[in-house]
Amino acid sequence: MDSPPRIRVGALTIMAARPRELGRFYSKLLNWPYIREEEPRPGEPPEAGYALVCPPEGVAEPALNFDYETNYRRPQWPAVEGEQTSTMHLDVGVDDLDAAVAWAIECGATLAAVQPRPTEHRVMIDPEGHPFCLCLG
Q: Where would I find the Glyoxalase-like domain in this sequence (predicted)?
């Protein structure tokens, strides 16, 4: 093969106990369209299901899928030995950290107790326990 095939990230999938609720949270936080959701499959609890949140038209960023995980355990951040850890997080660019933190809290996030570099970014915790960072720039 002379050159590798074109490969690109189209979406990130975030597992959750309440994926449709988490999808609505990120839709509001990012001001992105809540595209669709699916109801729980037979035998799943009422909070299960699926949601899709996509960037607005013309914005070249990956979509966010939210999918139900039967054995979801809320991650601990920072990591705690023997507890569920976060395996990845989103970095969200912002122009004003304080305003972005206030907005994230209004949407349902909490400010993490530990802030490694508070002048550059703020670690937030979404309603399902996933950390995400609000980053200047």
A: 12-135
